[in-house]
Amino acid sequence: MSNDAAQGKRIPYIRLRNIKKSFGHVIALDGIDLDVYPGEVMALVGDNGAGKSTLIKIISGVLNPDEGELSLNGKTFKHLTPSRAIELGISTVYQDLALVDCLDVASNIFLGREPLKACFFVDKKRMNRESEELLRRLKVSIPSVTTPVEFLSGGQRQGVAVARSINLQGRMIIFDEPTAAMGVSESARVLELIRSLGDEGFAVLVISHNLHHVFTIADRICVIRNGRLVKDFRTENTNPDQVVGFITGSNRYSGEYTEESITAWR
Question: Global pTM?
Answer without folding.
Answer: 0.85
